[in-house]
Known about the structure:
- It is a single chain.
- By secondary structure, the chain is an alpha/beta fold.
- The protein contains 11 helices and 8 strands.
- Helices cover about 50% and strands about 15% of the residues.
- Helix 9 runs antiparallel to helix 10 (about 265-300).
- The longest helix is centred in the C-terminal third of the chain and has 34 residues, at about 265-300.
- The protein is elongated.
Amino acid sequence: xxxxxxxxxxxxxxxxxxxxxxxxxxxxxxxxxxxxxxxxxxxxxxxxxxxxxxxxxxxxxxxxxxxxxxxxxxxxxxxxxxxxxxxxxxxxxxxxxxxxxxxxxxxxxxxxxxxxxxxxxxxxxxxxxxxxxxxxxxxxxxxxxxxxxxxxxxxxxxxxxxxxxxxxxxxxxxxxxxxxxxxxxxxxxxxxxxxxxxxxxxxxxxxxxxxxxxxxxxxxxxxxxxxxxxxxxxxxxxxxxxxxxxxxxxxxxxxxxxxxxxxxxxxxxxxxxxxxxxxxxxxxxxxxxxxxxxxxxxxxxxxxxxxxxxxxxxxxxxxxxxxxxxxxxxxxxxx
Length: 335
C-alpha cells in the first residue's frame, strides 16, 4: 500500500456476519478494477455476532489495504464513520453501508464525479427494492425535510453511498460534534456538490439495525442539528393560540353580558385547556431536544471509545533526493 492511497472506503459494521464475506469479495474486486490505490476502513460498532472475528480475518488477508477499528461498544453509524474519517489517508473518501443494498460496483460513478471537480457527491437510490410502506415513508420524509431545510439539497438522505474530498472530511472530523448527520454536515462545507443515481438492491441477509426508535433519533439529529425550524413553528403556533384565546375571552365576556351566567360550556373549556396543555408539553419537548444537545456538547465527553485498531504501520522513508539534500546540509554545516 502506498503511504497515501487515492481512495479511502469507510464502512460502519454492526452485526453483519451474513454479508461480510460477500462484501469483501465484491468490494475488493470493484476497487481492483478501477486500477487506483485504495484502502478500506471498517469500523466494528459494538457487534455481538462473529463480525469482529471476520473483520480480523479480512485484515489478515489484505493487511496493506484493509484497516479495522474496534469500538468497545455501540456508538452509532455516524460515529463509526467519524472514527474512520479521523484516520483516512486517501484523497477521495467514500462511505457505504455493509449490507450491500448499495452495490460496491457503483463506486466508479462516484470516483468519476469527484474527478470532474466536485467536492461532495451525494446519491439517490434508483428503483429502490424496499417495501411499499417504507418507500412511502421515505418519500414523505424527504418532502418534509426539503420543506423544513431547503438549503440542504438532497433527493435521498437515506442513501449512505457518498463521496467526499479529503478537505471536506478533515473539516467534518475537526468539528468534534457528539451528534451529527454527516451528509448534511458535508453540504454545509461543500462549494461544488452534485448528485448521481445509483443502483439499489434488496438486503440479502441479516436485519436492519435501524428500529423505529433509532430512526426517530436519527431524524432528531438531522432536524435539531441543522435547523431551528421546529422552534420557529412553535413560536408561530404560540402566537396564533394567544390571538385565538384573546378572541375567545372577548366572546365569553360579551356572551355573559348578553345571555348571563351559564355552565353548559364547562366541558368545552376543559377540552380546550387539555389541547393547549398538550401543545405546551410538545413544545417543551422540542426545546428539550435542543437543550439536551447543547448539554451533550458542553460536557466534552469522548464521542466514541476505540478498543484497538488493526492496521499495518506506515513507514515514512525519505527519497534519495531528500537524503542527498540532507547530507549536503550536514556537510556544509560541518565545513
